[in-house]
Recover the amino acids of this structure.
């Protein structure tokens, strides 16, 4: 078995995979690869597949398969798998970190103190306690966020067309979620229905001063409408780890909009999660021996 690691995984993974065959990272050898391992950076396109006549399996380390053309893989007889169970805790913890950073003014507190300013009176914190969190999508990651938010004393509501009831969140309609949420955390997959769904019409239905946290998919947001909502104060803050592209285009309106807390798509990049992804890949290949 020839295994091509196209993206960055835990450094221990090549050694763990050696039992299955040759492991290499040279994309120039894609024509030899029988197994292709990717994360978010590498896009598995029809053009790539044309260069990989021996390919039998693509494994995406992470949640979702947005960067893999599943139809093209199917047409070529290439199986596609991912590791959705591995990343839930890592992404949920980042969502909570962003959710805490905004009302606690963590970035301003740090940078101003480092610059010699002591803004003890000027920085006005607010709490998560007794606020309402709306979860847009409540699968594995949304559920982990729900559990953590409940521990902070938040009221948790959720909207997901595939979930009728939930042990932590009260399930509501999308309009009710928009109307009642002080915070909205986005965990929906990117589909034709969800692309750009958070736009000016959606923002108009939300509370004034709502805070949005996005560790799901960048294209669920209409960037121009979000920038406008931030400038007008309808949205107090937008904390995001995901973008239209990695890295975001320099023309992205969110890069210059007020109230944006940015991260460079690191949700699944915890040390522990990379090890869990490795565990899942080993288990997948064990079954294909």
């Amino acid at each position: 078995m020839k295994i091509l690691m196209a993206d960055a995984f835990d450094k221990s993974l090549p050694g763990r995979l050696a039992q299955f065959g040759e492991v290499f990272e040279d994309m120039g050898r894609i024509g030899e690869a029988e197994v292709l391992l990717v994360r978010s950076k590498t896009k598995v396109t029809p053009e790539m597949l044309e260069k990989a006549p021996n390919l039998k399996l693509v494994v995406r380390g992470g949640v979702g398969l947005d960067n893999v053309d599943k139809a093209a893989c199917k047409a070529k007889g290439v199986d596609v798998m991912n590791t959705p169970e591995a990343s839930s805790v890592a992404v949920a913890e980042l969502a909570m970190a962003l959710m805490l950073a905004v009302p606690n003014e963590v970035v301003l507190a740090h940078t101003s103190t480092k610059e010699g300013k002591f803004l003890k009176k000027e920085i006005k914190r607010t709490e998560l306690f007794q606020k309402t969190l709306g979860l847009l999508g409540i699968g594995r990651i949304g559920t982990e966020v729900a559990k953590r938010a409940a521990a902070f004393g938040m009221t948790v509501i959720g909207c997901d067309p595939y979930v009728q009831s939930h042990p932590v969140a009260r399930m509501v309609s999308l309009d009710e979620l928009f109307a009642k949420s002080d915070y909205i955390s986005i965990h929906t997959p990117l589909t034709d229905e969800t692309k750009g769904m958070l736009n000016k019409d959606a923002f108009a239905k939300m509370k004034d001063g709502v805070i949005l946290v996005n560790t799901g998919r960048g294209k669920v947001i209409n960037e121009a409408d979000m920038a406008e909502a931030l400038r007008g104060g309808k949205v107090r803050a937008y904390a995001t780890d995901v973008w239209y592209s990695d890295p975001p285009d320099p023309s992205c309106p969110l890069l210059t909009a007020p109230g944006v807390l940015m991260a460079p798509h690191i949700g699944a990049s915890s040390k522990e999660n990379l090890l869990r992804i490795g565990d899942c890949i080993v288990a997948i290949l064990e079954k294909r021996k």
In short: The first strand starts at residue 2 and ends at 5. The chain has ten helices and twelve strands. The radius of gyration is 21 Å. The CA atoms of residues 176 and 191 lie 22 Å apart.
